[in-house]
Design goal:
Length: 459
């Protein structure tokens, strides 16, 4: 959608200026059973986005049961309360809306976009499957085959995504983030209804859920509905999340993958970096600005130097999402031009990073990046779904409403020195073997040395 929705926050509220204004003017209350409710009013059109975010994801699965969280997400559409299998989505569609769901490492979310007049109907159906999931065994068996085929099509038959799984596992040893959300094939094949229901029974409860409603509804309308529909659901004894400590990596980790299905060479670096709730709370804000300054658009350092000026890369991207319960990941993707070797492009990237660490960003670069990010936050007000996503991502991973509301002001407080500091600590080419980076090379399979692209072209 736009950068703000996926890069919102880091906790700097104590430093926010007194005159700071909220972006969305969100309203919040908590039901007696512990369910949090967030409302973002938007009366431009008579529609709403209704979302339920469960504070549980793939990283909370029992050992050996990878894929259970995602499998359960599918089963939530296969019968609950008075609804038959598939009836939930059919009802939404018949009312002119659309619905879907997604699973991540840290949360599972279910959402509907529909005319505001149907809000109560949607809430009743969603509450029904929060406390009354009951798919027929035939549907469980059928959906089991569906998720296995999903992995086969999207991962097993996609060499790039398959290789990224290997890189992720190397970057997060002894931690569930090293396990793919969809699961490992061998464990997926062994999944059972009993395992899925046990996961559902353990984590799916109103006091482990966040209701986010955005659109044409007022607090006076939403609160009594939430109390009547969700407030009657029983509070459950939800366990506290416990994650393993991630050990530092030893040595420089480089992985190479060749395949006939890869037609373009790429270099990918994955840096393990702080999220908005880990380590120094200013780090994630500084990393957001660093990403914007170095790789935000075609005018930023990496692209301008390597693509426009020096013609060494066809593309280069930098991305970072701070919304993670534990450490997060900063990605660097680069595609060398045909006459440029991977080593040559890497050296050029390292030269830019080294210079950035030595000198830091200029005040102009910082101001321009802050302005772009502030504009993205302002434009977000026109969206109905975007703000709901921003609040959901943030709250489900340990952030607060104020982290979203005051994000532009928090960004303005970050200095060039703070950005230079996180660059030195996490992106320094001289520290490649110091515990937080994995590099992956993908090449077309050839009989010649993949490192020498000039020789390959000559043939």
């Amino acid at each position: 959608m736009f950068r703000f929705l996926f890069l919102c926050s880091a906790l700097l509220l104590l430093s926010c200026p007194a005159h700071a204004e909220t972006v969305f003017n969100a309203k919040h209350f908590t039901l007696e059973n512990g369910m949090d409710v967030v409302l973002i009013e938007n009366h431009r059109v008579p529609i709403i986005t209704h979302m339920i975010w469960y504070k549980v994801g793939a990283a909370d699965e029992p050992s050996g049961q990878s894929g259970i969280a995602h499998f359960l997400e599918h089963l939530m559409f296969k019968g609950s309360g008075d609804l038959k299998p598939g009836e939930f989505s059919k009802t939404i569609s018949a009312l002119g809306g659309r619905d879907n769901a997604f699973t991540s490492q840290d949360y599972t979310a279910y959402f509907q976009m529909i005319a505001a007049e149907h809000l109560e109907t949607v809430m009743k159906m969603e509450a029904g499957r929060m406390n009354g999931l009951k798919p027929p065994l035939s549907e469980v068996e059928s959906e089991h085959k569906v998720v296995i085929e999903e992995r086969r099509q999207n991962i097993e038959n996609n060499p790039r995504r398959h290789f990224f799984e290997t890189m992720q596992a190397a970057l997060f040893p002894n931690h569930p983030y090293g396990t793919p959300v969809i699961g490992w094939m061998s464990e997926m094949q062994a999944m059972t209804w009993e395992q899925a229901y046990a996961f559902y029974d353990k984590w799916y409860a109103p006091n482990n859920a966040i209701l986010v409603v955005s659109g044409d509804v007022t607090l006076e309308e939403l609160k009594p509905l939430a109390e009547k529909i969700y407030g009657v659901l029983p509070r459950e004894n939800v366990p506290v999340r416990k994650r393993n400590i991630i050990p530092p990596l030893k040595g420089e980790i480089k992985l190479t993958f060749e395949s006939e299905d890869i037609h373009q060479r790429t270099i990918t670096r994955m840096y393990r970096v702080p999220s908005h709730r880990t380590e120094n709370r200013t780090d994630s804000l500084a990393l957001e600005l660093l990403t914007e300054i170095l790789g935000g658009d075609s005018t930023t350092r990496l692209y301008k130097k390597l693509v426009v000026e020096d013609a060494k890369a066809a593309t280069i991207q930098l991305s970072y999402d701070p919304a993670s319960y534990d450490d997060s990941t900063l990605w660097l993707h680069a595609t060398p031009l045909d006459n440029v070797s991977a080593e040559e492009l890497e050296a050029a990237i390292d030269e830019i990073l080294t210079d950035f660490i030595k000198k830091g960003p200029t005040e102009q670069e910082l101001t321009e990046a802050q302005n772009r990010m502030e504009n993205a936050a302002i434009f977000a007000r026109d969206s109905v779904t975007g703000p709901a996503m921003a609040f959901g991502y943030t709250l489900a991973t340990g952030g607060t409403i104020d982290d979203v509301e005051y994000w532009p002001d928090q960004i303005k407080l970050i200095t060039t020195e703070q950005i230079q500091n996180v660059a030195e600590r996490f992106l320094d080419p001289a520290q490649k073997g110091d515990g937080h980076m994995v590099t992956g090379y993908m090449f077309p399979k050839t009989t010649t040395n993949h490192k020498n692209s000039k020789n390959r072209e000559a043939q």
